[in-house]
Amino acid sequence: MILCTRDRTETLARSIKISCNELPDFEVLIVDNAPGTNQTAEYIQETYAGCRRCVMCAKIDQVVLARNCGLQNTQAEIVAYIDDDEIADPTGWPSWSQGSKHAPR
Q: Three-class SS of residue 97?
């Protein structure tokens, strides 16, 4: 999962909590898109040490570039995008990932 954010730790916390606790086998790559502060990176490092996630920064303030940056840096075979004001549905992920294994490449 590639999660794009920009200086919104209050909504990011809700999105990541679902991802980390209910989807522990998924990589969550957080792209902090042109952050104004280090608050997001510090929050992730302090709160989610040990979870499979990574914080990276994209220097240009465009969400499409943040998504591309995430895609270039993930090792996942299946990628989904989410923004910091969305919550991943933990019941949908397992069936979605299983279905994608049968899709033509």
A: helix
Which sign, positive or negative, has the C-alpha torsion 36, 37, 40, 41? Answer: positive
Q: What is the CATH number of the domain that holds 67?
A: 3.90.550.10
Predicted confidence (pLDDT) per residue in 11-64, tens digit: 877 777 666 666 666 777 888 888 888 888 888 888 777 777 777 777 778 888
Which amino acid belongs to residue 55?
V
Range of the domain at 58: 2-90
User: Which residue has tokens 């990541």?
Assistant: 16
Q: Rounded to 5 degrees, what are φ and ψ at 78?
A: -120, 130
What is the longest distance spanned by two Cα atoms in the chain? 42
The Cβ of residue 86 has, within 10 Å, a number of other Cβ atoms equal to: 14
Q: pTM of the full predicted structure?
A: 0.75
Phi/psi of residue 98, each to 5°?
-65, -40
What single-letter amino acid sits at 68?
N
Domain count, the chain: 1
The Cα 71–Cα 89 span in angstroms is 21
